[in-house]
Write a structure and sequence with these properties.
Number of strands: 11
Order of helices and strands: EEEEEEEEEEE
Radius of gyration: 13 Å
Shape: globular
Number of helices: 0
Strand content: over 45%
Length: 114
């Protein structure tokens, strides 16, 4: 079992930045992937960015060029930095952890005001 605790989010002005962090605890060993997904009202949950324990990253097209994901394997934490925010970035952002199973955080609301 893996527990994910997210922090960050809130209300941000358009053009601003967000910084989200997630700490994983529990049965963590071996290769794994951590990252972030988001879900806007009335839309499906979608990938933002992920990073493997080996450091390989994957970004959604909308995130490329303005988003950075990093992790600390010793602390089992992942950090998401997104810049140049737009109102359409408004969503609940979920921390994601995958090893042999997918785990989700409870989500943190990000609202971008125009």
């Amino acid at each position: 079992q893996v527990r994910l605790v997210e922090s960050g989010g809130g209300l941000v002005q358009a053009g601003g930045s967000l910084r989200l962090s997630c700490a994983a605890s529990g049965s963590i060993f071996g290769f794994n992937t951590m990252g972030w997904y988001r879900q806007a009202p009335g839309k499906q949950r979608e990938l933002v960015a992920t990073i493997t324990s080996g450091g390989t990253t994957n970004y959604a097209d909308f995130a490329k060029g303005r988003t950075s994901i990093s992790r600390d394997n010793a602390k089992n934490t992942v950090l998401l930095q997104m810049n140049s925010l737009k109102p359409e970035d408004t969503a609940v952002y979920y921390c994601y952890f995958y090893t042999n199973w997918v785990y989700w955080g409870r989500g943190t609301q990000v609202t971008v005001s125009s």
